[in-house]
């Protein structure tokens, strides 16, 4: 659980932002390098390869975002595996192994559906723009649209709202000690506080953070 109070140069968000912004600027560089015979063919070829590399990197980062946001397979409180003796139904529900399959596969399905729809629209409109404005102007328009979409994605994944994740009364205590039937909050890792900055994507109702807050009896507070 990351509870950093400020953005650092080694944060995942800053790395992702740099990679995401690099893709539309690589498209712009390809546009500027595709002026005609006066520029060596190596220049547009290099930028075309760079666009392909950054595109694959963007897909990998999107997959990482999906797993980071919707994976709940590690939310097993207190122990792993089966209990050694019969427990009440309420305790057994708390100790049920989570599966990330429905949420993660649903997120992959939605993201890939949107990607195919956008790719189909770009293929159709790109041909029209190329015939009307020319190939170089068409690549510039595509790079501009990609920059707008990139800025929107950065806005969605920017962590801006402070949300309580860990109950204040149990923070700093040995939450795994005590009677077998005592309620124990879910605490992942070694957090430095009880709150975490959340992005619009992480504020969704099916995210791992929503599940952690539900199991920590914090849902309904702060409007989330």
Distance between the termini: 18 Å
Q: What proportion strand?
A: under 5%
Q: Give the low-pLDDT segments.
A: 77-84
Categorize the overall geometry: elongated
Major sheet details = 2 strands, antiparallel
Mean pLDDT: 77
Strand order of the largest sheet: 1-2
Task: Give the helix proportion (percent range).
Answer: 40-55%
Structural class: mainly alpha
Number of strands: 2
- Which value, in Å, is the CA radius of gyration? 23 Å
Instruction: List the total number of helices.
Output: 6
How do the helices and strands follow one another from N- to C-terminus? HHHHHEEH
Task: Please tell me about this protein's structure.
Strands 1-2 form a two-stranded antiparallel sheet. α1 (12-33) packs antiparallel against α5 (135-157), α2 (42-70) packs antiparallel against α4 and α4 (101-133) runs antiparallel to α5. It has six helices and two strands, in the order αααααββα. It has 224 residues and is mainly α. The model is unreliable at 77-84 (pLDDT under 50).
